[in-house]
Amino acid sequence: MDASIPVSRDVDWGTAKLMPDVDRQRAWLLTVNGAPQSYVDLDDPTHLEFEYARRLAHVLDTTGEPGAPLDLLHLGGGALTLPRYVAATRPGSRQRVVEADRGLIALVAEHLPLPAGSGVEVTAGDARAVLEAAPDDSADVIVADVFGGSRVPAHLTSLEYARTAARVLRPGGRYVANLADGAPFDFLRGQVATYAAVFPYLCLIAEGPMLRGRRFGNAVLVAADTELPLAVLARRAAADAFPARVEDGPGLARFAAGAAPVGDADAVASPEPPGGSFGIG
Question: 9, 90, 157, 219: which one has the fewest Cβ atoms less than 10 Å from its Cβ?
Fold first, then answer.
């Protein structure tokens, strides 16, 4: 693939574009309908350009023994940024990726192929359907990074869905999701209440201005049946180029105060980003 020529293709859910990064020789930005979806550096899969991806990686890095293989289920594929990261940092990991857009799968396979022996299996399908079919206690981590356009689909936000995720996770496993919202945080507060009804341990990782309602943005939700390494996560998040904080315990309870768990019958997609917050053309 010519590292200087953008690629544009119609896929199942719109128009996907691969745009080269002029500062990194074999690095690409994937957008779908103008919204950034993934950033991949083929020469350095540990380079994570997006801050939310770094926060997801902090959770992965602190799960289990450092560097030990993990079994991961990725809901949402994009350009496979995190599966590449895990393959590089935890060799021998078994990873299954579920992506609904078959056209996008084909585009990524053609132009950004996985290295041989990566241990990554990519499946076309609906994230919830695949999760519901997964065996009990079969994943160390479930990573949910699913956006239909710029919105998290409603059927991936409910209490029933959260219970399914808990069933699929092994004891000590973690569910980690990339979410997006802005003040008054009706969606994000509902998600905290929903996962708090299923998992005893929870935290949010996000930039302070976003959590204070100053702007729309991403928040990483982490849920588990055992205590989370909050101090380590807080140090790592604070050291990033765009520092974030970890909200848990009483602070998280205050954030979600008054919110109720969301069932399938009442679930809604995350809100549309105002003014194309994440669009880049």
Answer: 9
> Which one-letter DSSP state was computed for residue 278?
T
* Closest by CA position to 140, among listed 231, 255, 198, 62: 62
SS3 content of the chain, % helix, strand, coil (to 5): 30, 30, 40
Sheet of 245-248, strand order: 120-124, 94-99, 71-75, 139-144, 169-181, 217-224, 201-206, 245-248
Give the span between the Cα atoms of 109 and 36, in whole angstroms.
18
Q: Which helix (H) or strand (E) holds 257?
A: none
Say how many CA atoms lie within 13 Å of 104 toward its Cβ: 28
The conformation of residue 155, written as its DSSP 8-state character, comes to G
Per-residue pLDDT of 164-191, as tens digits, reads 999 999 999 999 999 999 999 999 999 9
* Contact status, residue 56 vs residue 145, Cβ threshold 8 Å: yes
Q: Which residues contact 276 (CB under 8 A, 6 or more apart)?
A: 34
Could you report the per-residue pLDDT of 47-74, keeping only the tens digit for each?
999 999 999 999 999 999 999 999 999 9
